[in-house]
Amino acid sequence: MANALTVELDGDTLNALDRLARQTERSRDSLVAEAVHDFVEVNAWQLQKVESGLAAADRGEFASEADVARVRAKFAPRA
For the whole model, what pTM was predicted? Predict the structure, then answer.
């Protein structure tokens, strides 16, 4: 069962939403509902990862110096 929600958007965002709705032949409501759904999913995933990381830290599970050095080397600029 869907529930109603009122959202206030600035003019530029509303105009962009309307353009997107026309271009995709979808309604404002469906685009906003999808955006909110995706936002909630991503934030829930991020929070779960943070909570998992904090729990691991509480257990004393940290990366070793060798692990950190390996990752730093992987992303270091190449000369």
Answer: 0.72
